[in-house]
Write a structure and sequence with these properties.
By secondary structure, the protein is an alpha+beta fold. The chain is 33% helix and 25% strand. The chain contains 5 helices and 7 strands. A 4-stranded antiparallel beta sheet has the order 1-2-3-4, covered by helices on one side. A 3-stranded antiparallel beta sheet has the order 5-7-6. Strand 2 (19-26) and strand 3 form a beta hairpin. The protein is flat.
């Protein structure tokens, strides 16, 4: 949750996987807007309703979850379509592999088949070039808090392993047979 928004106006719904509630007060009326994040940067607004009681109506919550799932399913369809196009152009493609820090982000990894998610492991490499993007926001600006914490850890590092551990997200590699995209 963004640190500058009070929980009264923007809070995670416990028991939900990534669903948030935005509170809007207009005069004596209170409205709620269900929302969720896309790739950690974009807040996607779902359904809204006027809240008249303390308890959130179950049908509104069910609707919000359905909207969130449909949104993520569209992203998954795009990935599967991309893999299908690549495999048509190059029939020798047997595996889909991704080696990146972004494999730490649930909303990214959930686009892949479960077999891909199960294959994820820390990549043992001294090549750090692929992990700097995690320090930038969507506008290409440095995330000051992450960079500050990283630099503190780097300054006290006494070994290559400690230096690798300074990164907030490790480079994970996942690989799965292309057949899992053809289900």
């Amino acid at each position: 949750m963004p640190p500058h928004v009070p929980e009264k106006y923007f809070k995670h719904l416990e028991g939900s996987k990534g669903l948030y509630e935005i509170r809007v007060d207009v005069g004596s009326n209170t409205y709620r807007i269900f929302s969720f994040f896309d790739k950690g940067n974009l807040v996607v607004l779902g359904n809204a309703f006027q809240k008249k009681t303390q308890k959130t109506p179950k049908q509104e919550l069910v609707r919000a979850i359905r909207i969130m799932e449909e949104y993520h399913d569209e992203n998954k369809k795009d990935l599967y379509k991309l893999v299908e196009e690549v495999s048509k152009q190059n029939t020798e493609v047997e595996k889909v592999r991704c080696s990146s820090w972004i494999n730490n982000i649930d909303s990214f990894v959930e686009l892949f088949p479960i077999e891909y998610r199960e294959s994820l492991k820390v990549k043992d490499s001294n090549n750090f070039l692929g992990i700097w993007q995690q320090f930038l926001n969507k506008d290409g600006e440095i995330k000051e808090d992450l960079m500050e914490d990283f630099l503190k850890k780097v300054n006290i590092s006494k070994s290559l392993e400690q230096l690798k551990d300074a990164f907030p997200c490790k480079v994970l590699i996942g690989e799965v047979d292309i057949q899992y995209f053809r289900r």
